[in-house]
Automatic annotation (TrEMBL), chains A, B:
It catalyses: tRNA(Pro) + L-proline + ATP = L-prolyl-tRNA(Pro) + AMP + diphosphate. It comes from Circinella minor. This is proline--tRNA ligase. GO terms for molecular function: aminoacyl-tRNA deacylase activity; ATP binding; proline-tRNA ligase activity. Residues 236-493 form the Aminoacyl-transfer RNA synthetases class-II family profile domain. Residues 183-206, 656-676 are annotated as: Disordered. GO terms for cellular component: aminoacyl-tRNA synthetase multienzyme complex; cytoplasm. GO terms for biological process: prolyl-tRNA aminoacylation. Keywords: Aminoacyl-tRNA synthetase, ATP-binding, Ligase, Nucleotide-binding, Protein biosynthesis. Residues 191-206 have a biased composition (Basic and acidic residues).
Amino acid sequence: MSTVLESLAKLSISPKSVSHEATVDNKAWSDALAAADLGFDYKVTKCLILKPKTAKSATPTPVVVIALDSTETNVTALGKKLSLKECRFANEDLLKGTFGVAKDAVSPFALSNVSDLSLVHLVLDAALWALPGTTLLAFREGAADKTVFVTVDELKAYLKLIEKEEIEIDFSTLAAAAAKPAAGKPAGKAPKKEAAAPAEDSHQMGIEHKKDGDFSKWYQQVLLKSEMLDYYDVSGCYILRPLSYNIWKQITNFFDDAITEMGVEDTYFPMFVSNRVLEREKDHIEGFAPEVAWVTKAGSSDLEEPIAIRPTSETVMYPYFSKWIRSHRDLPFRINQWCSVVRWEFKNPQPFLRTREFLWQEGHTAHLTKGAAGEEVLQILDLYEKVYNDLLALPVVKGVKSEKEKFAGGLYTTTVEGFIPQTGRAIQGGTSHCLGQNFSKMFNITVEDPNAPANASEEAKKIHVWQNSWGISTRTIGVMVMVHGDDKGLVLPPRVALQQAVVIPCGLTVKTSKADEDKVFDGCKEIAARLKKVGVKSKADLRDNYTPGFKFNHWELRGVPLRIELGPKDLEKSQVTCVRRDTGAKFALPLDNLEKGVQEALDTIQREMFERAKAKMSDSIVPVDKWEDFVPTLNAKKLCLIPWCDRVECEEDIKDNSARTSNEGEEEDERAPSMGAKSLCKPFEQLTDKPIVPGETKCVACGQDAKHYMLFGRSY
Amino acid sequence: MSTVLESLAKLSISPKSVSHEATVDNKAWSDALAAADLGFDYKVTKCLILKPKTAKSATPTPVVVIALDSTETNVTALGKKLSLKECRFANEDLLKGTFGVAKDAVSPFALSNVSDLSLVHLVLDAALWALPGTTLLAFREGAADKTVFVTVDELKAYLKLIEKEEIEIDFSTLAAAAAKPAAGKPAGKAPKKEAAAPAEDSHQMGIEHKKDGDFSKWYQQVLLKSEMLDYYDVSGCYILRPLSYNIWKQITNFFDDAITEMGVEDTYFPMFVSNRVLEREKDHIEGFAPEVAWVTKAGSSDLEEPIAIRPTSETVMYPYFSKWIRSHRDLPFRINQWCSVVRWEFKNPQPFLRTREFLWQEGHTAHLTKGAAGEEVLQILDLYEKVYNDLLALPVVKGVKSEKEKFAGGLYTTTVEGFIPQTGRAIQGGTSHCLGQNFSKMFNITVEDPNAPANASEEAKKIHVWQNSWGISTRTIGVMVMVHGDDKGLVLPPRVALQQAVVIPCGLTVKTSKADEDKVFDGCKEIAARLKKVGVKSKADLRDNYTPGFKFNHWELRGVPLRIELGPKDLEKSQVTCVRRDTGAKFALPLDNLEKGVQEALDTIQREMFERAKAKMSDSIVPVDKWEDFVPTLNAKKLCLIPWCDRVECEEDIKDNSARTSNEGEEEDERAPSMGAKSLCKPFEQLTDKPIVPGETKCVACGQDAKHYMLFGRSY
């Protein structure tokens, strides 16, 4: 906890400070200050901490109001303005717990004590803000009997220091607006063309954090404010709202069609697994055991033995493979399921990237030969690449995982690796494993070899099938948000957008005639309908209580790829004005060419989003040929492509050395930018201009003979 | 446990019986019997109990072999013949546990002690079966020192009594067949046009129970043998295999498209629920609490507080409704999720109908007015009706549930009620609830009334939204199997069939030339490809190790709607021969008209399956106008449509009286055919030829004034 003076000391401010008798309310406080006869001018302030109503279990999102004592702060009207339900004064627990202060000692400087400022709404009285910068303001100095005097400019500097953006509120107009509806309006008719009375204030609506600033808070705000996701009262679990679930639906449709065409059949296994079954493959379960959730009770009865919730389904399904696969003619045997799995991670959860329950598909297949299995591994990996490239407009690097990073219990793992430029970290985007015969031996999944000599023994004729498993999850969505989003919010690739185009009536003023206005509104409706007819997911935003500017923000935040504006001037020219979400580029489109023009624009957006992201990823993959450059490259938020010896010990050394080098004295933290680099994959596309010369090219890390190029990087 | 003599006594057989020294093996036993010098002829037998390999956790499916002692019973060859993996002699546990006998006392009469005979494979030595009916057979008499003598006919009578069908095996040819492959066949070439060597014996493959016989066993066998479903080692959970999951996929696609068009958006809430949230609505949770599964551990750590797995999502979602719905402009607010829910029932589970985890969709919506909510309730109910009628070819009765049967915590419940003719029981097929304002008051989901007078108070302007919830589950699949299936297995309506048509090469004999044979095979491939091109899900079964007859059985069992046969004679006439699965009707189709003809045939099958089922259901809804006819109508496997007073007390009386009447002295059991009738619904279509006359028509059950017609029946 820092005191008021400590907080100010950081700004090299040593403010005036006085002691007086302890005062409980502002009236008594003003009187006490007046009685002290200080000999300089000042304005008494008030600092209110309010708690809007939220779900009982949710973390409170308090509102801090800094105002002149003389300003009438209507808490109800404020709550309405901010769209916060039932704002009430915070109780002692919240004050103590969140702000570290007592009731009569609240000042703006208590914000220094708040651990997560993104949860706080900071409201500033416009009347106070408008005062000359040198005006002295009286604040409580952390106690009921002390006052500190700080200028308006110093207060502004303090707020800048803590990086908390304020919401400026004009309480006088707020009070007037609140009083207005009672002023004899015709009932039952919504006001039109008036000053917008938005349910969300555009200030509060927008993203407060910069993508290049606090990336992690930016990410969370984008997800919450775009309404992709909401927090949930079971830690590590999140609600997928329609905007994000739709992306998963698009991925599902694309991928399910593709694997159905390949002959894979969908199935559904129970989410429950008995301990016995879960533990069948030791290497495999070792990786999952610490994260398994156990059901031990039903109703008020204890179960005879605990039952697990599937963390993945290899050991769940393979006993049945043994039963169902009776002959080589049943091969390839391929099933897939769309389901959720539970991995009760104790590390910091992160929406989409690390959650305790997530949605995925898991494919499980069996083949007669290693070759057939291997072929499918790559077919599936290509489909995963398509999901990223074609749907999410994201680049990936395809390759093979190292021995250390492969799937526990499998033979080899192929992967599509994504990349988040802001953090310089790679992220495993989807994996297609060849399990070899390890599981088929464990679960006795055999067929008779159709090619065995007739006189071979029973045992010699038996073939253990070759198995694959492959999965991709809702993690995809997180990568997409991180790569494409910007300071205005979400940017959705058209192919996964719930709304691809939004039509907004513009250019209407108080002078616009009713007839002209109707023309614009009807025009918007018609445009949306025409687009819908040709398969463009579009809607007209005809809400009459929001300004166009508000609507622009609203849909930009939500990432809608194309905004179509229609105003009286557009109508005159038989055109619409289009604005791309990804670039902000504006262009006119003749109404004659609407459908084709919009479809082309969406295609262009999709393509260019991919190209931009791809260029950024390519730029970030740096061939490194000496160890001295390795850590600096990582620190420059890049990935390192190095000639590598392909040894587990070397990989472990690289991780240790790249962590230590940049990490002197700091605490070890997987999430810190200074964590060690892991191998990401041996890219299928090896460097051709500088090929590895066997026996000559050396491993950049250890100096032994290099086998191939390997991509290393910090990763999620 | 019954003794051998008790078992035989039921057949009024008092067999010869002798004591001798205890003998451990058959050789010693034969010697002991010979030494006893009995003075009559007999054949010594052996009775083997084998255990095929199954998943450790699965219930064993033992094989009982009854053979002459002189027959060489090759257990490995037998296992192969029956497609059972690794048949080994059963251990003492299995003998004691399942058959109630010790190792040296096993006889066929131990079958009387088996609680679920459907799990046992009973194999009879053809050599024994072929003996004259009066031949005496020596069996162990439940102990190592006693022998009983029973004739072949008496053994046959016994097996008939216990209703266990045997599999007759000729061990001599079995042994020969097992030896065959070594007899110098060209390696690497599969035999063609030979006697089929099926992986499944056609006897074992088929359904052993009659639909009109033991319906419950028939149902289980159809599901297992058609490969719709498999049992799982967590009780009450089942594996949905592709054949059944595909039906759910078709339902999902149809229903999701329809609600998306209505403006409903898909979403996904976590499967976990905190206790706090679960318990918010008391009436509601009371119904679910005894069945809630609780997670209390993760990895090796105990959770701070137990977390439930959702049994349904009203209380999970509605706190967020309160947060998300900010204005009347957000209404209607409609979301839906496809997920699984868990209800840990302790009653007898039944595949699809009563399972601990099941798949469903749950829609949750909020509206400004009761009228708007009510309209949606019916729109959704119409979609549920369409799922049944149009996809599953099943009739339903639409109507409103009684107060007693409505959703706990809701205002009223509408339902589509299905009907299973074999049991005469109704089944709730899908429900669309209007929740009224109960939950919105509980969770404070309010908007400002857009039509309130401007001078109304804040409180008066507040409207609690009107909510609906609606769901349909994989239960649909169970109803479909029960209604359409027959003694040959599954019968699938074309619209939900994974394969709609299967093409089978026929009429090939040893005399067929290679060229002609190739023509037939190529023709089959081409037909399947042509059909696939026009969207008919078809495949050619070109397996060369099965006879056409075997394939017919195989696909009939799996319910494929249309079989297309192609033989040399068909080719000559440029036609195919089609056989409908539902009726067995056979017809020729010119190859010229293949696509159109097949599509029409599938449409006809779909339509006629529905019409037949509808006629059956209509016939089973009997208007009953006096109480004396009520129970007899139920007992005749019908539903009763009666003028009813609409009182809860009367409904309870009806249940009691209709149970007791037919149930004298028997044990109460929900599943018994004599259980009491429940109200099913007040059908939207009321009887028009005998309309209720207010004040005049009386309730059939209690004699008070009737309000409307109500459908009553025994139900699932």
